[in-house]
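Exercise: predict the fold of this chain.
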Amino acid sequence: MPKTGLTPAAIRDKAIEVTVEQMRRHGFDKVRLVDIAKDLGVSHAALYTHFVDRGALLDAVSERWLNALESSLAAICRKEKDPIAKIHEWFQRLHRAKRDKFSNDPEPYKSFHVGAEALKPFYTSHLARVHRQLAHMVGEAVTEKKLTRYSIDRTVSLLFETTTAFHNPKLVAQHVHEKREPLLKQVLDVAIDGLS
C-alpha cells in the first residue's frame, strides 16, 4: 500500500474525483497529471502506474459517468412493463442524461465529447453496451409481435440512427437549450409505427 494509505484502486478512484474537480475549476484543457499527483500526495510516476497518460485519465472520467448512465438505463430494461414503453423511457433517459451533463457539468462533458468524436475505446464500448440493452427490449417487443418488420439487429440500428439527434454528444450540445423530449417521443412513435 502506498504512503498515502490508499489502495491502488482507491488511488485510481481518487485521481478520477480530483480530475473532475480540476476540470470544473480550470477546464479540462488544463488538467495535468502532475497536478493530480500533487493533490493526491503521490509522485507523478506513481500516477503513471494507473493511467498511461493524461488522455487515459480523462477517458476514465468519461467512462465512470457512462457506467453510471448505463446502470440507470439497465434498470429500465429490467422493468416489467410494455417493451415499447420501455424503449420510449430508455431513449428519454439517454437524451436527458446527456443534455443534463452538458448543462450542469460542461467541462467533463467537453472531455467526453472529444473522446466520443475520436471514437476512443471507452465510447465505442459504451455504444456496444447500449446497443445490447436496446436489443434486449427490441427482442421483447418482437416476442410480443409489437416490432415485426426487421431482425432485432436491424431494428436496433434503425432506432438508434433515427434518434441520433437526441443522443449524439455534438448534437445534444447544439440543441441543449431546446425542450426536445416531445419531439423525441414523436420521432420514436413514427419509427416504431414503421417497424411494426
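Check your answer against the key: The mean pLDDT is 94.
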